Amino acid sequence: MLLSELTWQDVDQLDRDTPVIIPVAALEQHGPHMPVFTDSMLLDAIINQAHPSFKDDALLLPLTWLGNSHHHLDFPGTVSAEPRLWIDLLLGLVDNFISHGFRRIVVVNGHGGNDVPGRQAMFEVRQKHRERKDLLLLFATYWNLVESPQQSISDLEQNEMGHACEWETSMILHLRPDLVKNHTETPDVAFGNSFQPAQRAWTMPDRSQAGHIGLPAKASAQKGKELLGLFSQGVADLIQRVIRWNGQSWEG
Fold first, then answer.
1. pTM of the model as a whole
2. Which of 4, 20, 167, 214 is 20 to 30 A from 246 via CA?
3. Is the confidence at residue 181, as pLDDT, over 80?
4. In Å, how far are 84, 97, 106, 120, 125 from 130, measured between CA atoms?
5. Interatomic CA distance for residues 146 and 238, integer angstroms
6. Do residues 218 and 172 make contact, with C-beta atoms less than 8 angstroms apart?
7. What is the pLDDT of residues 193-252, one digit of tens each?
8. Strands ordered across the beta sheet of 104-109
9. How confident is the model over 106-122, as pLDDT tens digits?
10. Residue among 191, 110, 185 at smallest CA distance from 144
């Protein structure tokens, strides 16, 4: 069910165990070869492809395109909310639906920079309602819902999501090839190990002057079609788990 097409009376008649799905992404630079709306375009396509599997059983919000992208602000065209502001925005969205009585809320994320503040927002909402035992609050980044895409797509060369990389460039090549510019001439930018397993704070110029990380020259529309299918299935499977949850157990 699309929230944007319902009246408030329609929403009020829903079972409060109906999962509420909140897609969040970003508007930020994606290297010299990719559009700034990449993250939002990809998540929207993934959600739309997954939607038929739960369209009668879950309430889907319009995509929130504003994300936390401060690490990309050296590149014109990036639009970013301050981390605390973005946490409060997401916290408020989730809390709105809790106040309306909904108990199962899933934030589906399409931008790596949203991951830490997004999990913080969900943590804070849970503490605010710590007496509740019936809430299921989830934050999921779509590419983490699928284990080892290389097992299904044998010619993938990257083994993880980068930025304007083989994976993202392939998916945009499938969706909107007219928006990709000379990706085959875009040089590789290594992921690097930095100080792992510690997590180093960074801005994009620390890692890439061009604004991308990964292997965009290895991208293809066919890889993109297969990746979109895998990631859409990952989202669909998660929502089905939420629908099946018994309302009490820790496992799902």
1. 0.95
2. 4
3. yes
4. 21, 16, 18, 15, 8
5. 10
6. no
7. 899 999 999 999 999 999 999 999 999 999 999 999 999 999 999 999 999 999 989 987
8. 59-60, 20-24, 104-109, 136-141
9. 999 999 999 999 999 99
10. 110
Which two structure tokens, joined as six digits, stand for 81?
């909310």
The pairing of beta strand 136-141 with beta strand 20-24: unpaired
- The sign of the CA dihedral 57, 22, 106, 35 is positive
Token pair recorded at residue 215: 């292997």
Any residues with CB less than 8 A from the CB of 110 and at least 6 apart, and which?
A: 23, 24, 25, 26, 39, 40, 42, 43, 46, 141, 142
pLDDT in the model for residue 252: 75
Q: Which residues of 190-204 are buried (b: 16+ CB within 10 A; e: fewer)?
A: ebeeeeeeeeeeeeb
Over residues 92-108, the pLDDT tens digits come to 999 999 999 999 999 99
Residue 251 has a pLDDT of: 83
Q: Which fold, 16-244?
A: Rossmann fold (3.40.50)
Note if the bond before 197 is cis, omega within 30 degrees: yes
Report residue 152 as tokens.
């299904």
